[in-house]
Amino acid sequence: PQPRPSPPVPHTFRERSLRRGVPCGGCGAPLGPHGLVCRVCKVAAHKRCESKVTSPCQPLPPPEL
Fold it and tell me: Are 53 and 45 in contact (CB under 8 A)?
């Protein structure tokens, strides 16, 4: 039997101040000065679009030194 893929990890959003023009992961429109950012994968979203973010939450690769 093939191993089951692990279930997608839900995003863990927190409110942050953002640069203008960062695209929303839910609707694609640019965010204003405030929005939500996932602590793990850093995807940004409007508060109203939090439930619309469909991309899986995957940790970013470690930065190369």
Answer: yes
What share of the chain has pLDDT > 90, as a percent?
58
User: Contact at 8 Å (CB) between 15 and 45?
Assistant: no
| Euclidean distance between CA atoms 59 and 10, whole angstroms | 12
Nearest Cα to Cα of residue 38 among 5, 14, 8: 14
Residue 28's alpha-carbon distances to 52, 53, 62, in angstroms, are 11, 10, 26
Q: How confident is the model at residue 44 (pLDDT cuts 50, 70, 90)?
A: very high
Domain boundaries, the chain: 13-52
